[in-house]
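Request: Not sure, any thoughts?
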Amino acid sequence: MTPPEPIEEVALDGPGDLDAWLRSAERPAVLRGVAAQWPAVKAAQASDREGMAYVGRFEAPRAPPVVATVGPPEIGGRFFYNEDLSGFNFRQEQVPLHIVLNTLLKYVEDEAPPAIYVGSTTIDTWLPGFRAENDLPLAPREALASIWIGNRTRIAAHQDVPDNLACVVAGRRRVTLFPPEQLPNLYIGPLDFTPAGQAISLVDFSAPDLARFPRFAEAMRHARVAELGPGDAVFIPSMWWHHMEALASFNVLVNYWWRQTPAWMDTPMNALMLAVMTVRDLPPAQRATWQQVFEHYVFDAGDATAAHIPESARRVLGPLDDARARELRARLLQRLNR
């Protein structure tokens, strides 16, 4: 396979330029050193022990346990399905964060440790005070800040609806990205039974089976890759496929998620699941008709779509807001539960 091209790198004069750049950012980019001055980054660069101690001192006294994902050494850090996709090759435990950090320290010199991973943990809930010392100026975006902690783990290629700015705090990460249109070439698994909520590629990136997944070679022609060190960040636009590999025995990542849409908008994944249930298996002629209906009311919708209806009577064909969305959601739930 052709080696992937590097992700474009963007140089900012300082964190203060981040907001201006993000306003026009539409493609992935690596931002070297954007979080290099964080005390958490400096502690982790001093040693794994200091990095763990720094993170651990912010643990809220009465914080609920975190969800730790744990797999045996044999999985090589790849959290995935079992052989027939009827289950998974890992287990999940609810444990205090300091227990996770102590366990990571215990195995930090082990060549074949169990895979340990705490994913998508809200910083303000579990580590109050952390962002007062380690944060990026992302206002006016209402970004959700999460922390990811673990050892050498691999997270299969998947998509997220929000835009994503991911900052390496400790260790190193290899990030492989694909544009959204590579969906057919990534061999995505089940939509409704997933390791962590998002559908994932079934291809093992460390040893791709091109006999089983031949189109993956085409996906790699469009891939972009970067290796990130402490203080580096990568911007991943909405719906770009991303495969994340942690390369060190102790890794910490802080990421910020935000959507460019009102909070009342549901995820489009709900619409996809409903379409699978209600449209996909229609007779071909009917399915083609509904494709035209969706194009008219959704994908090609514009000012002319409902221009023939008085504004006061357009209802869902007019501009939506929080109140109208709640009304529509209640109507949908009533129909689904009939």
Summary: The chain has a mean pLDDT of 96. The two ends are 52 Å apart (CA to CA).
